[in-house]
Design goal:
With about 190 residues, this protein is mainly α. The chain is built from eight helices and no strands. Belongs to the sigma-70 factor family. ECF subfamily.
């Protein structure tokens, strides 16, 4: 985030501190598209995504008084964490045990996904096709930079399960990408 982004964060925080009615609108305008993208990586169905996004903003708005601005990017990191937690909460509610390792995983050879030449939109659509557990671990590990130990704690699974889910997610994603490049559809 550049200085302009830093100035936007400070302006939003100050508006909330002063109790200005435009604070929510300003925060929403600044982060709605970004948080939609974050939630999109975890939640497959658009109606569910909208619900999770709405719950995220409700929590953000109601907890702004507890937010402690710590410099450039801290507001963005804070709202991202809330959105991800809302996504995980939604997934847990949808399925009692979303993150169980497949008993009989698909026969997919080990390979790393070749994302070269893919747009972000295409890659996101392909990631959204992964099973919930695979997609969630992939996002937490690759995009959010969490360790398998951290993921295990977040999802109430073993670190080995997280590693296995990631391995299978990468292999399945590699197959999806290969098929997309070969046939041009998802």
């Amino acid at each position: 985030m550049n200085n302009l982004g830093n100035d936007i964060e400070i302006a939003i925080v100050e508006k909330f501190r002063r109790g200005e009615t435009s604070a929510m609108d300003r925060l929403y305008a600044a982060y709605a598209n970004y948080l939609t993208g974050v939630c999109c990586r975890y939640i497959v169905h658009d109606d569910d995504l909208k619900d999770v996004l709405q719950e995220s903003f409700i929590k953000i708005f109601t907890r702004m008084n507890s937010f402690d601005y710590r410099g450039k990017g801290s507001l963005r990191a804070w709202v991202t964490k809330i959105a991800i937690n809302e996504c995980l909460l939604f997934l847990r509610r949808q399925k009692q045990n979303t993150f169980v390792v497949d008993v009989d995983p698909p026969d997919i050879p080990d390979e790393e996904p070749d994302t070269e030449g893919l747009s972000g939109d295409v890659l996101t659509r392909l990631i959204r096709q992964l099973p919930d557990g695979y997609r969630t671990v992939l996002n937490l590990y690759v995009i959010e930079g969490k360790s398998h130990k951290e993921i295990a704690e977040m999802l109430n699974i073993k670190p080995d399960t997280s590693a296995s889910q990631l391995h299978r997610a990468k292999n399945m994603l590699a197959k999806f990408i290969k098929d997309y490049k070969r046939y041009g559809y998802e």
